[in-house]
Model the fold of this input.
Amino acid sequence: MSMSIVAELCTACGDCEPLCPTGAIHAHKGVYAIKDSLCTECEDYDYPQCEDVCEVDDCIVPLDS
Ligand code: SF4
Ligand code: SF4
Done:
C-alpha cells in the first residue's frame, strides 16, 4: 500500500518531503511524487506524516482511491 500525491493539486511547497521517514517523496522537475515501492503509509506512526503536513485538501490520498 502506498499514498499518492495528486499532481494537479500539489503546490510544490516541499513541506512533505523532509517528513517522510522512508525517503519516498521526491521532487522531479518541480513536481512532487511518492515512490510507491518506498512508501509504507507510515506504518510506524498513527497517520501518514505527509498527509498530515500537507495543507491542500485531498492532495495526498491512498494510491488506489
Ligand atoms: S505515507 Fe509516510 S512513508 Fe508514505 S510517502 Fe507519506 S510520509 Fe512517506
Ligand atoms: S505538502 Fe502537499 S502541496 Fe506541499 S509538496 Fe507535499 S504534496 Fe505538494
Summary: Residues 42 and 48 are 5 Å apart (CA to CA). The mean pLDDT is 95. Residues 49-53 form the longest helix (5 residues).
